[in-house]
Specification:
Calcium-transporting ATPase, cytoplasmic transduction domain A; 3 domains; seven-stranded antiparallel beta sheet; Calcium-transporting ATPase, transmembrane domain; Calcium-transporting ATPase, cytoplasmic domain N; alpha/beta; eight-stranded mixed beta sheet; 51% helix; 21 strands; 29 helices
Length: 819
């Protein structure tokens, strides 16, 4: 138990004197509401709809594709808007998943909405939280949550739990004149308090204010895609100029195009060229992967608030967490009894009585697990527990028994006190059971609340109840090379004992963070070199997370209290427990609804699957983007017409990239995360893109010659281009699916069959405007398809040798993975 800690409260001369039994009048309440002094409650429990919308809608991808789509729609070419489907699906899937998470979180938000009990005009009544005003007198009893910051007017053993604000679990005794803060709750006793701060001015709201500011999660996948978009965006201005000019020149020049109306067809093929340069499918596959993972994890009571959270956990190399609610159940369990002398008979029944007492504090209540033989005869006298006195007492037929803290019942410098201190230093909570003949009474027989003179009989120890799944979960993270750090507001020795029971290495000792500065090099060094911290303030938690990040670590932070909100916000991945404070859940990216820490390994596995599979399909999408850019620029410079309509290119994209990528992202993949996926993908994709683009340029050179000679039409050249392109793209696919298994081989075969159906089925020929090439053009089509495929294979083999030389960790991870 703890005495009340100091908290700044308004000076007496600055407060209006309010009678705790009379309270405010209705007119005084009305005046305060009109003056803006009501308790306007911020009920934010999740990200806003606007935040979710802007995250998914306002991207460079969507801006470019939206302008292209607008041009096609204005020209009335609806069949050629198929390329917009991926962008629209990407926005819808991402929004629906995150909005669903928001709705669920709002529905299960644990913010206490019970009305407050106040005294107004001498009557005790209940009012909604948002109708409280400054100077209201609030009645508090056991189980109540403090609705606003207030000053204690009267106290009858009023004890508060301030763990949501400080992280410390010990009850805090409150006496008249002390401050009580919103988000704390009443453990025992009663009292009346006068509100001095409401709404945004309350301590809890100020603590959460910085945490409410929106920041995007640090996702390598998203960052990689945005880097690609940035490069493309910078390049698109000259590229668009080259492409558009080339298409206009291909139909006879600007004057002829504008006068004859040929500019419309030129615009359509220009859109086809530009849209093909945007790796929109990569964004879609990433979004779908995140959404599928979110749905799957929701079945395990894991709520994903921001899609990339799953990926980030797979990259984390440091996990920071609180003791209570993560390592431990949040309560204590009976450990042992140690006799100090010959304990008088009846001590077991006495402990059973204390454990069964309806007013027992949580520590004493834990005795009921071990001691169940409650005396049948009613107690002849009792002294109720209060954290101010730190003991309780009962008079039974075997005498009077006193149960309390060693500091309250044992004299200093006695062997019994030293033994109790040793037990406490080992991380055990310790209480003393003392015995005397009877409780002190007044002349009329009333029991006095003064401490009885009693002889110590027993030391009772209690142990933090370590979660059953905690040791296995911590061992899993350790096996994955992830460092573990405990940041707790509790006593350092208690924290270290719980960590040791959970299997953590605590050889470096527990650090008392109250002896460290709130910021600076000393705190940063401690965060890097130690792993167990007690008495950690909210500001220190945040700054230790920042210090770890500055040292190059990717940090996850778990928590439940408002005191954890800042650290969760600044961590790469904030994880809240299901019983967390609303502000804490609102800033977290991932919520363990049932509070089970052992859910995280499955999240990590899903994240690894996503990263590994997205790296596979990134090779496909970047190759597609690369050859589209090279092809578009070369055709523009040569003033040749782009040889594919948007609808034709959309089908080619579906066969060689989009369709296969969808199935690949759903397949199992346990490959561990290796940084640098974008650089590895570019090393393979750029040469492959050049091979494909040059193959198509050669084909179009031949096709144009055939057109001049009258041996081929434009539609035949377009069909030939699609066949060669898909042949090359599908061989590129074979490099992404290796090592082969039955499912991956079947996927490749299915795509080849899809190509055959697309060019041979009459209705498909009509929709795509296909006409099969003949004669020399057909020979060149197949020959370039096979030759280009061989060159793609050569590039793949060279890429594998490069990986073995410069990225052996990536090769090792691939070999160790299960597919």
């Amino acid at each position: 138990m703890k005495n009340s800690r100091s908290t700044v409260v308004p000076r007496a001369e600055d407060r209006q004197n309010i009678d705790p039994h009379q309270g405010l009048s209705e007119s005084q309440v009305s005046d305060r509401i009109n003056a803006g002094l009501a308790n306007t409650v911020d009920s934010t429990t999740s990200r806003s709809v606007w935040t979710i919308v802007r995250t998914h809608l306002f991207t460079l991808f969507n801006l470019i594709l939206g302008l292209c789509g607008l041009a096609v729609v204005l020209l009335g070419r609806w069949f050629d808007t198929l390329f917009l489907l991926a962008a629209i699906t990407n926005v819808v899937v991402g929004f629906v998943q995150e909005y669903s998470a928001k709705k669920k979180l709002d529905q299960i938000a644990l913010l206490r909405r019970d009305p407050a009990t106040v005294v107004r005009e001498g009557r005790v009544q209940q009012v909604p939280l948002d109708q409280l005003v400054v100077d209201d007198v609030v009645v508090l009893k056991r189980g109540d949550q403090v609705p606003a910051d207030a000053t204690v007017l009267t106290s009858d053993g009023l004890d508060l739990d301030e763990s949501m604000l400080t992280g410390e679990n010990d009850p805090v005794a409150k006496v008249p004149g002390d401050a009580v803060l919103s988000a704390s709750s009443v453990l025992g006793g009663t009292g009346r308090v006068q509100i001095f701060a409401v709404g945004a001015n309350s301590h809890a709201n100020k603590l959460a204010q910085e945490a409410r500011q929106f920041t995007r999660i640090n996702s390598e996948l998203r960052a990689g895609m945005e880097r690609v978009v940035k490069w493309i965006t910078f390049a698109l201005i000259p590229i668009i100029a080259i492409v558009v000019n080339g298409q206009m020149m291909a139909v006879g020049g600007w004057s002829r195009a504008l006068s004859s109306g040929a500019w419309q067809d030129a615009t359509i093929v220009a859109v086809s060229s530009i849209a093909s340069m945007i790796p929109q499918g990569l964004a879609l596959m990433t979004t779908i992967s995140f959404a599928v993972a979110a749905v799957k994890l929701a079945q395990d009571e894991v709520l994903i608030q921001e899609q990339p959270a799953v990926e980030v956990l797979a990259r984390v190399d440091v996990v920071c967490f609180d003791k209570t609610g993560t390592l431990t159940e949040g309560g204590v369990g009976f450990d042992s009894v140690q006799a100090l002398d010959n304990a008088p008979a009846g001590w077991r029944q006495a402990l059973a009585w204390f454990g069964a007492d309806e007013n027992a504090n949580p520590t004493a209540a834990a005795l009921s697990e071990e001691f169940t033989d409650v005396p049948a005869k009613k107690a002849s006298g009792t002294i109720a527990f209060s954290s101010a006195q730190r003991f309780s007492a009962v008079e039974l037929s075997t005498g009077a028994w006193v149960l309390g803290a060693p500091e309250a019942l044992l004299d200093a410098s006695t062997p019994e006190r030293e033994r109790a201190s040793e037990l406490a230093a080992s991380g055990l909570r310790t209480m003393v059971l003392a015995h005397t003949a009877s409780l002190p009474r007044t002349a009329d027989g009333k029991v006095l609340t003064d401490k009885p003179k009693a002889s110590p009989a027993l030391l009772i120890t209690f142990r933090e109840q370590v979660r059953e799944e905690a040791p296995e979960t911590l061992q899993y993270f350790a096996d994955q090379g992830i460092s573990l750090k405990v940041f707790s507001g509790d006593n350092p020795q208690t924290v270290a004992a719980a960590a040791k029971l959970a299997g953590m290495n605590v050889d470096s000792g527990a650090i008392d963070a109250s002896a460290l500065p709130a910021d600076g090099e000393e705190l940063a060094q401690a965060a890097l070199t130690h792993n167990v911290f007690g008495r950690v303030s909210p500001e220190q938690k945040k700054n230790m997370v920042l210090a770890l990040q500055k040292a190059g670590h990717t940090v996850a932070m778990t928590g439940d209290g408002i005191n954890d909100a800042l650290a969760l916000k600044h961590a790469d991945l904030g994880i809240a427990m299901g019983n967390a404070a609303p502000a804490t859940k609102a800033v977290s990216r991932l919520i363990l609804l049932d509070g089970r820490f052992d859910r995280l390994p499955s999240v990590l596995a899903e994240g690894r699957k996503i990263i590994a599979n997205i790296e596979r399909v990134t090779n496909l999408f970047l190759t597609k983007t690369g050859f589209a850019i090279v092809l578009g620029v070369l055709l523009g410079l040569l003033c040749w017409q782009f040889p594919l309509l948007p609808r034709q290119y959309s089908t080619a994209d579906l066969l060689m990239v989009g369709g296969p990528a969808f199935f690949l992202t759903m397949m199992n993949n346990t490959r561990r995360y290796v940084p640098g996926f974008l650089n590895r993908a570019l090393h393979f994709a750029v040469p492959s893109a050049i091979i494909i683009a040059l193959s198509l340029i050669v084909l179009n050179f031949v096709g144009r010659a055939e057109q001049v000679a009258g041996g081929a039409s434009l539609t035949q050249l377009q069909t030939a281009t699609l066949i060669t392109l898909v042949m090359l793209g599908l061989w590129n696919l074979t490099t992404a699916v290796r090592p082969f298994d039955l499912k991956r081989a079947a996927l490749v075969v299915a795509m080849y069959l899809g190509l055959a159906l697309a060019v041979l089925v009459p209705i498909s020929q009509w929709y795509h405007q296909f006409e099969l090439p003949t004669g020399p053009l057909l020979v060149w089509t197949l020959a370039l398809g096979m030759l280009g495929s061989a060159l793609v294979e050569v590039n793949y083999q060279y890429h594998q040798r490069w990986l073995r030389r410069y990225h052996p960790d990536a090769v090792a991870a691939t070999r160790a993975a299960k597919y």
